[in-house]
Structures are given as structure tokens and as C-alpha cells.
Amino acid sequence: MIDLILSIFCSTSVLMTFKLLEKHKIKLFHVIIINYVIASFWGVVSNGQSGFFRESGIWQAPWFPLSIVIGICLISIFFVMGISTQKAGMVATTISTRMSVVIPIFFSILFYHEALNSLKVSSVVLALTALVCSIIKKPDSGLQNRYAFLPAILFFGMGWLHVVIKFAQQEYIPYNQSAAFTGTCFFFAFVSGVVISLARRVPFRTFFQKEVMWAGILLGSFNFGTVFFLVNALNHDILDSSVVFGINATGIVASSVLAASVIFKERLLTVNWIGVAFSIVSIILLTNT
């Protein structure tokens, strides 16, 4: 459970960091590139005790091809998330990313034959209800219909990404290689970012602005922890992976809503607090299925 709690904390911290980037008008693209350098670095450092890099090249690991796919998907989804937030609206974007949890949950049930009962189904439905309630806001500018495809891409993209992570963890990743796997995924996300930077002809010096560097270090550390601790949580046999994904998603929503209220002084509607309550009940049900 410690790994799951740390994953939720890191995921919430990523969202809070994005909030601060917007507030201080720091360029998102530059921070995302640096963030993957830092995340890769933490992968190497965290893996130092296992000696995996000393004993065998990562290219020989059975999960290596999947790490390339996941790395490309990671940075792609990050960029789509940023564009969707600006064009389609934050509410639509948040709903699509958090509700995507249903895809890995049902993948785990269908392909790995994890237990399915009425209590689990009820708790998943309650979790999804909590997700929606927690992020409802008063209508402001409204959703721009011509960009409605962006949240749809995020929904399937995020869901598919977690399915691939689950598949890699289930089939190829021993517990002592989770750090190497995570660091490699982030390294290929960074490589993809460099390719994008070269294609866009982004000035190299703009990456070394003080605020960009610090924001990248902060975001990269939390970003690494999000995947690393989630993979570790999935490697434990205490909870089914469908339960882990459910708790992770609802925990992120509940903690993010509370952080927004306490730290960023955002006013919450009654329905938001109902969502937080539903999240807590859902977590209790999921951990007892």
C-alpha cells in the first residue's frame, strides 16, 4: 500500500506542478523535455542497488521494446493533454484522462481473469461517479466543439498506455527491474522530445533558463515516482491490478480536489465534495473486494 500511496502523491504533485507552471507562465514544452531527463536519471539512480545495468544491457531485457513504445506514448499524451486543456477545456480533459481507468480495469479482468463480482462492479461504478463529481465546475467559456476529438484521444490514449504498462509488468518485469524499466521509458520519452525540438528548431539556450530548469527537475522527479511506484504496487500480490488502478485513479482525484481547495484556494461546489466522499467509499470497497 505504501507504493500505491506514493504513486497517488506523485501523480497529484504532477498536476499541482502544471498548475504552478500556468500561474508563473513558464513554457510547458521546455519543462516537459527537461522533466524526462530527470526522470531517466532517477531510473538509473534507483536501479543502482540491483546491479541490473552492470550485469546486463537494458537492450537485452525482454521489456526493452515495450519501453520504447511507452516512452513515445508518454510524451505524446503529455503534449495532447496540454493542447486539450487549452482548446477543449480543463473539465473535458480531466474527465477523459481519469475515466480512462476503466480500460485497464476491464483489461485486467478479461485477459488476466481477475475476480469479478457485484461488489467490485459496484465499487468501479461508484469510483467513476466520484471521478465525474469531483471535477465538475461551473460553466465558463464552454467546450469548443471543433476540438472535442482531443479528450476522446486522451481517453483511449491514457487507457491504452496503462494497459501496456500492466502487460509489461505482468509478463516481463521482475520486481528488482521496475526502476530500470521506468527509467528506460522516460529516456525514450526524452529522445522523442529531442526529435520534436529539432524538428521545431527550438533554440537550445531556452532550455537553460533558471525557472525552466527548476520546474523540469521538480516535474521529472514526481513524474518518475508516478510510474515507478505504480509498477511496484502492481508487482505486489496483495491487491488485484484492477483494484490498484481503481484506487490510484480515485485517490488522485480526491487528493487533487483537496489540494486545489487548501493550497490553491479554489472554491469547491457541493457536488465536488460529494465526489470526494464517493472516492473514499469507493477506495474502502475496492480494498475489501
Describe the model.
The chain has 289 residues and is mainly alpha-helical. It has one domain. The protein has twelve helices and no strands. It is globular.
The structural class is: mainly alpha
- What is the overall pLDDT average? 78
Q: Roughly how many Å apart are the termini?
A: 15 Å
The largest pleated sheet is described as:
none
Question: Fraction of residues in helices?
Answer: over 70%
Shape annotation: globular
What's the number of extended β-strand segments? Answer: 0
- Runs with pLDDT <50, length 5+? none
Q: Give me the oligomer status.
A: single chain
The tally of domains stands at 1
- In N-to-C order, the SSE pattern is HHHHHHHHHHHH
Strand content: under 5%
Gyration radius, in Å? 19 Å
Number of helices: 12
List the helices and strands and how they pair.
Blueprint: H1 2-23, H2 28-46, H3 52-55, H4 64-87, H5 90-99, H6 102-111, H7 118-135, H8 149-171, H9 178-200, H10 210-235, H11 241-262, H12 270-286
Helix pairs in contact: 1-10, 1-11, 2-9, 2-10, 4-5, 4-8, 4-9, 5-7, 5-8, 6-8, 6-11, 7-11, 7-12, 9-10, 11-12
Which keywords apply here?
12 helices, 0% strand, 75% helix, mainly alpha, 289 residues
